[in-house]
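Subject: design request, 238 residues
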């Protein structure tokens, strides 16, 4: 099966293998945000994801209180903003302002510490982002630190694969010395005694985190046949 996804910076991530690759992906990264005058984390999910998150949060966190909910028309889509009151690690409470912009192709979300609907609206208003037939991407500068852009996908009956570009900061964490050759790269154990694998291709670094029920033979077979290409924006990414 072949799947193509859009990274948060507009790069195209192509995955190919003999497993089910039809599950939706999450694209994450840090982008320069004019309203905050610094880089800030964002996530792109499939359209309608904000409804799923709110329902799950209410079901699983009894101490969660959403004190404010507002909706704004912004940039051709709908921006949903809420203030969440949560317990902290010290027995007190903390507030987060959470926002998700829903468009025709995806959902762009982030949060800021504290309670300020106005500030979070400004974050989305000053951030440059757009939609195309491939999905939603950020057009403001996306930076590699503090965290490299990533595309993560659940592969049923196997686990989660997380793909990042093969840039210097990512290659630094690949084990030194050659790995076991696969059809499309090299595979390493993430660390001694761990079941997680690191797959290195010419353009990407891929973490493979197996489910408990996935057996080792299936995991190794997947890594051997899995092909991943990270194609930066401007090289066929539209």
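Subject: RE: design request

Done. Sequence follows.
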């Amino acid at each position: 099966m072949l799947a193509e996804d859009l990274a948060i910076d507009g790069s195209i991530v192509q995955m190919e293998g003999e497993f089910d690759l039809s599950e939706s992906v999450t694209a994450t990264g840090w982008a320069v945000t004019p309203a905050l005058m610094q880089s800030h984390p964002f996530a792109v999910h499939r359209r309608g994801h904000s409804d799923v998150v709110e329902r799950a949060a209410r079901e699983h966190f009894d101490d969660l209180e959403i004190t404010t909910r507002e909706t704004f028309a912004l940039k051709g889509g709908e921006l949903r903003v809420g203030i969440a009151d949560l317990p902290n690690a010290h027995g007190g409470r903390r507030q987060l302002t959470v926002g998700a912009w829903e468009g025709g192709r995806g959902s762009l979300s982030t949060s800021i510490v504290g309670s300020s609907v106005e500030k979070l609206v400004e974050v989305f208003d000053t951030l440059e982002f757009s939609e195309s037939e491939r999905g939603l991407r950020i057009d403001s500068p996306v930076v590699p630190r503090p965290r490299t852009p990533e595309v993560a996908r659940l592969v049923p009956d196997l686990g989660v694969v997380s793909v990042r570009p093969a840039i210097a900061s990512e290659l630094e964490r690949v084990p030194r010395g050659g790995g076991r050759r696969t059809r499309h790269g090299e595979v390493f154990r993430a660390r001694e005694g761990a079941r997680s694998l690191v797959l290195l291709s010419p353009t990407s670094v891929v973490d493979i985190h197996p489910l408990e029920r996935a057996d080792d033979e299936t995991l190794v077979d997947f890594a051997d046949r899995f092909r991943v290409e990270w194609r930066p924006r401007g090289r066929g990414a539209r």
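The radius of gyration is 19 Å.
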